[in-house]
Amino acid sequence: MYARVFLVLAAASAIFASAHPVLPRSLPTGTVTCGSNSYSPSELTAAINAGVDDLNSGDLQDNYPHQYYDEPSENITLHCSGNGPWYEFPLVPGGAIYTSPSDDYHSPGTDRVIFTSSGTYCATVTHTGASSYDGFVACNND
Ligand code: 2AM
Questions:
Q1: Quick one: average pLDDT of 31-46?
Q2: pTM of the full predicted structure?
Q3: Cα 16 from chain centroid (whole Å)
């Protein structure tokens, strides 16, 4: 009897697993490195929250957040589900939140966090080490 229940459960979980091969993964568990810059999961979360707030309020300083496009040639894995749209927001080394008021321009730097409009983490990317000037590569351990 117990063996039969076990078999049924095992079969059900196998079917469930194969029907959902790619589960959205949440934040990285450790430090993410982009070139010589490092970001903790809480720094990534803070940048995503700032980006979602700006998206919702239409506060697009220096045009961020703006849409991020999945370019297959860049080989960047998005750890979120769905078909987008995806958004990008600058990461500032040291943990500050990116801001660029119209009277006080700040460069967005090299690194970006990618997320959905509801704030789900997708990836961390950088221009550092990309094969073209405007291209992105995934950051390490993202
Ligand atoms: P960025 O301004 O944050 O660098 C040209 O590369 C423009 O497209 C840039 O504004 C860049 O963002 C944006 N962009 C969006 N998705 C991109 C991608 N997958 N690769 C490179 N640039 C991308």
A1: 97
A2: 0.84
A3: 26
